[in-house]
Amino acid sequence: MGGCDRTDADLLREMAGKDEGALRELYDRHATWIHARLARRCADPDAVAEVLQDTFIAAWDGAARFRGDGAVGAWLWGIAIRRLISRLRRRTDVRLGPALLERDEYEISAEEQVLLRLENVDVGTALGRISPELRVVLQLTVIDGLTTREASALLGIPRGTVKSRLQRARTSLREELA
Description:
Elements: H1 8-16, H2 20-41, H3 45-62, H4 72-90, H5 110-117, H6 121-129, H7 132-143, H8 148-155, H9 159-177
Keywords: Sigma factor, Transcription, Transcription regulation
Domain RNA polymerase sigma factor 70 region 4 type: 123-173
InterPro entries: RNA_pol_sigma-70-like, RNA_pol_sigma-70_dom, RNA_pol_sigma70_r2, RNA_pol_sigma70_r4_t2, RNA_pol_sigma_r2, RNA_pol_sigma_r3/r4-like, WH-like_DNA-bd_sf
C-alpha cells in the first residue's frame, strides 16, 4: 500500500506482517497526542517516555490480534493508560500530572475544553462547577474508559472512594443541569 492513504487499520495489518515502516507511520500519527495525555496524568517525563515506548511495543506485538474498524487511537490509548497504571502500581516515586492532581487550581486541558464544548454548553458549565476530585474520577472512568479498579490504582485511593465520588459527581451534574 502506498503512503498517506493508508488508514490506521491498514497500518496495523501491515504491522502484523512485521512491516517496521507501518509502525513508524502509526507512531508518527499517534505518539504526540498519547504523550500529551500521559504527561497530564504523570509528571515524570522518564515514566511517560517509557510508557509511550511500551505502548508501541505492545501495539507491534498485538497488531495481529486487533479487531476493530476505525478505533485504533482508542485501542492505543487503552494500552497506554493501562501501562501507566501498571507502572504507577510498581513505583511510589512517580508524580501524578496536573490532570490527576486533586487541587483547587485544576487546569482544564485543551482536549477537555473541546469535550466540554461539544453539543451542550450547559454540560460544560456544570462540569466546570463540580469539584476537581469529582471531575477527575469522571474523566478517568467516562472519558478515558477506565474501570473503577484502574482509576483507584491510578489515583491511589480505595475503589469504594472512586465509586462514591463517581456517584457524587453524577448527582452534582444532575443538580447543576436541573
